Amino acid sequence: MYVRARVSGLAYTYNFPALDPSLVLYYPLDTSANPSNGFTTPNYASKLPVYDASMAGSSMISYSLNNSITSFGDLSLNNTMGSQLVAQTTSGNYVVCNNTFTPNISGGFSISLWFSCSGQLNKTGTLISLPYNKTGNGIEIDISGTNMIYTGWNYPAYLLYDPIQYYNFDVANGAILTEIISGQNASITSSTYNVTSMSGYTTGIVNAIVGTGSINTNLTYVRYGTGSYYKSNASFGNYAILYPFNIGNSNSMTFCFWYYLTSSISQYAGFFQIAFPKASDGTYSSGSNTIQLQYISTSSLSLDLLNNSNDSGRTILSSFTNTNAICAQNTWNFFAFTITSTNPTSTGGTGVNSGTTSGTVTAYAYNSTNGLQTTSIGLYNRFSNFQNANAITSIGGNFNGSDHSTFATCYFDSVRVFKTALDSTQIQNIINLE
């Protein structure tokens, strides 16, 4: 591909090298930059200029042939080695790419660049940073001192075992929530997901706090990070409704979270409800295709898996052996459930915990006083009702006040969803993270 450019009356032509079709980013950082359009510089990975990167601070393109390696021009940055710089939030000189790509991890990927700089003893400077998502760095290439280049992979601890959804409730933005994996930080109208058809649900949004709850920043009631969700009102209509997740065609899943009770709760108080749309019309109903957790007694939580009216199989898991192991007050409690299906389309269930099983449901409960408690039961539901569906979670209650009118009043933190069934060792490792 040939590109012509004109600088101060001088016209020149250069030829890009043959471009690998797997190339996702290629920035010549030369005179093709456009200072009149917000100081942008083009990405030629597609062999056509796409102006998707911005120059910040006093970043500039130098036109000295003595400095250029390829084409005509290079990027000139004047930063202080070792100084703290957070792209797009503090002053500094850098180029930020406003594009995303998904690397082919199985095939590996490569990063290359030309650079010339003066290192400084005992100081580190960043050449390239590839954030994993909006919340922090992933891969980083740095200059260290005067004679070393090193790379690092900063894999956030909360991504252990690759959750597909994670809420840490650290970001306070009014009633709007932030989902960490996707970076989703805006509310979405529930009509997109047909949630407005659900009995008792009238707020019209997802990814938001409904009612009187709030993001708490008192670290006494924070399990991990800087915030937690506080459900301050036990009545129906007060909960956090999360952004949809989808396990695809996976035959298993895990859901887990932390909660902190400051007072006793009533029987049948709800902790969460996950609603899956009906395959017939894509709508949601609190009476079908749901998974919910309710408090029964000091030694029992009831995990209820309910399918729609076309499937009679229903799984209820509701026993632990250690009193107060699951709902101790004034301490953090942890709960997780896993589902593994051996035959997702099976209709072997003929009622509540009856008929032929097609998998296993396991529940885990933990606090620091009583340790980890585990209980399991066979799966009587048609698991395919939970697959390839946008599942919406209510934290702190369920979607239908006529079902149960009392809900948990407590703090919630670190809600995770996985499209795999974690084993007991992995569950303990998740607990140990926080």
Give a description of the structure.
- There is one protein chain.
- The chain folds into two domains: 2-116, no CATH class; 159-433, Jelly Rolls, CATH 2.60.120.200.
- It has 434 residues and is mostly beta strands.
- The radius of gyration is 27 Å and the shape is elongated.
- A hairpin with a 3-residue loop joins strand 9 (136-144) and strand 10 (148-153).
- Mean pLDDT is 79; it is low at 1-14 and 86-90.
- It contains one helix and 29 strands.
- The strands form eight sheets. Strands 11, 15, 16, 18, 23, 26, 27 and 29 form an eight-stranded antiparallel β-sheet that branches. It has a seven-stranded antiparallel β-sheet with strand order 14-17-28-19-20-21-22, with no helix packed on it.
Could you give the order of the helices and strands? EEEEEEEEEEEEEEEEEEEEEEEEEEEEEH
The CATH first-level class of the largest domain comes to Mainly Beta
Helix content bin: under 10%
Mean pLDDT: 79
Can you tell me the number of structural domains? 2
| Total DSSP helices | 1
CATH architecture of the largest domain: Sandwich
Radius of gyration: 27 Å
Spans of at least 5 consecutive residues with low confidence: 1-14, 86-90
Strand content: 35-45%
Distance between the termini: 53 Å
Shape verdict: elongated
- How is the biggest beta sheet arranged? 8 strands, antiparallel
**CATH-defined fold name of the largest domain:** Jelly Rolls
